[in-house]
Amino acid sequence: MAKDKLILKNIEVRKSPIHRYGVFAINDIKKDTIIEEAPSVILMDNPLLPDPLNDYAFGNVTDENTYFQLLPFGYASIINHSDKPNTEWYFDEDNEIIVFITIKDIKKDEEIFHDYGENWFQVREAAQILNKLEDNFNNGKISINDLRKKLND
Question: Are 23 and 12 in contact (CB under 8 A)?
Fold first, then answer.
């Protein structure tokens, strides 16, 4: 059953020096504070969303090791990446929400970050390479034999 009210506190969206927009603290925030509960759409049957939506989806795994993606609403999809994040998130299955909680104290005006995961950037780079190979094949710039050779290298 859905919650009566979702948490969204102490944060706002601003222009970010990292990437277009980001989420920032509007007050000092203590460690272990929930800053957002974001409603989400669960996408079980789609391994990857089309660009650019895929850049805003969160990957998750069920207890049965089934991969699925979540498309969050609210500020969750705007939180930028850092290898030194100040938040982490988990999926509340009962309420179908992504919950962001601080993992350290955050100062007023500090940008909120989470770690996208070790494979996030590599998967996107691989998709770009595959798309380029597909375009080259479809446009006759590369033969099937050359394509096989490149994929086996």
Answer: yes
Residue 49 CA to its chain's centroid (Å): 12
* C-beta neighbour count of 123 within 10 angstroms: 13
Name the nearest CA neighbour of 57 among 44, 65, 36, 66.
Answer: 44
CA 45 – CA 27 distance, rounded (Å): 40
Tens digit of each residue's pLDDT, the chain (153 residues): 678 899 999 999 999 998 889 999 999 999 999 999 999 988 765 556 666 666 667 777 667 777 777 889 999 989 988 889 999 999 998 999 999 999 999 999 999 999 877 665 555 556 566 667 777 777 878 777 776 776 676
Distances (CA, A) of 39 to 3, 47, 57, 100: 10, 20, 12, 12
**Nearest Cα residue to 28 out of 113, 102, 115:** 102
Radius of gyration of the chain measured on its C-alpha atoms: 19
Decide: 89 and 100 in contact? Cβ < 8 Å.
Answer: yes
Closest by CA position to 31, among listed 98, 76, 75, 85: 85
